[in-house]
Write the structure tokens for this entry.
Amino acid sequence: MNNTKYKKLEDAILKETDLLIEKAKSQGEKMIFELFKSAILKKYKDLFDKELLEGTVHKETIDEAVEYCYTDICVSIRQIPKMNETEKEHLIQLGKQAKEAVEPIIEQLLIKDGINIS
């Protein structure tokens, strides 16, 4: 029960952070919020690595680890010097579209390699 409350709180914070990213006016503001989001999601990347070694990866772990990687990429894109904001936003939108396709591919590759998905 306590885990459920914690997860609901985490989800609410992540959703609010996404709204703050959308409303932010500058690349710097967006990057700060994305760093915050990345810090929250990093535990799922670490959990993914641990579960992978154990041979069973939870679907939620995959989803959140992919979200962590996407957020981390957004931070990196926002730091690219000599690129205008429009180009950065375009790259980030392309990444967002690709993110949807990545999760099923990761699952297929894990299953192919004998890793269980639960």
